[in-house]
Amino acid sequence: MSRSTPKMRGFAERLITHETREHSADAKSTSTFIVFEKMRPHLATLMGNAGFHGLLLRSLSLASAESGWLRAVHVNANGSLEGPDQAASQFGHEEIADGRLVLLSQLLGLLVAFIGESLTLRLLREVWPELPADGLRPGKEGENEKTK
After folding, report:
1. What is the DSSP letter of 132?
2. HSE toward the beta carbon, residue 112, CA cutoff 13 A
3. Which end of the chain is less enclosed by CB atoms within 10 A, N or C?
4. pLDDT grade, residue 107 (50/70/90)?
5. Would you call 120 exposed, middle or buried from its count of C-beta atoms within 10 A (0-12, 13-18, 19+)?
6. Whether the predicted model's global pTM rises above the 0.85 cut
7. What is the DSSP letter of 29?
8. Burial category of 58 from C-beta neighbours within 10 Å (exposed 0-12, middle 13-18, buried 19 and up)
9. Dihedral of the CA atoms 68, 139, 33, 130 (nearest 10)?
10. Burial 7-16 (b: 16+ CB within 10 A, else e)
11. Residue 82 in 3-state DSSP?
């Protein structure tokens, strides 16, 4: 069952937009998968490396059904992603960006399903303390920042 709901996609897009702004030098490269790298130590602390590996592997499996280029990506034992940079040379920027968005929304959806929205938001606020208090509610990042 896909967890890539419009709500999760919107939230994933806000996180990616925030990180892209923070790392503008990497904005056009697939290294903007930095969202996953920033989340990895926090999630691995919560569920262990094997647990995070399994969660990301399931997210990747679900996301690959929506974005075929993700089949070229693999999850290493430590939970890092391998292959996005090689895929960038074969696929367009929009296709790569969409796949990244789908993968993150699947991961967030699984987290919410397993540990709930409140705990997921608390965990994400450890990674991104500036995360708006309204959490997973749809909206543009700028609008949410005004309501802080």
Report:
1. -
2. 18
3. N
4. very high
5. buried
6. no
7. S
8. middle
9. -160
10. bbbbbbbbbb
11. strand
Query: pLDDT tens-digit profile of 23-43?
Result: 655 444 445 588 999 999 999
Q: Is the pLDDT of residue 4 over 80?
A: no
Contact 127, 42 (CB under 8 A): yes
> Cα-flanking dihedrals φ and ψ of residue 134, to 5°?
-80, 0
At 77, give phi and psi (nearest 5°). Answer: -55, -30
Amino acid at 4: S
Residue 58 tokens read as 């399931």
Helix (H, G, I), strand (E, B) or coil at 81: strand
Strand, helix or coil for residue 1: coil
Cα dist from 42 to 36, 38, 70, 95, 127, whole Å: 10, 8, 24, 28, 7
The burial class, CB within 10 Å (0-12 / 13-18 / 19+), for 147 is: exposed
Residue 76 DSSP label:
-
Q: Which of the residue ranges 64-73, 82-91, 126-135 has the most confident prediction, judged by mean pLDDT?
A: 64-73
Q: And the tokens for 12?
A: 């994933």
Q: What is the rounded distance in angstroms from the CA atom of residue 128 to the CA atom of residue 4? A: 21
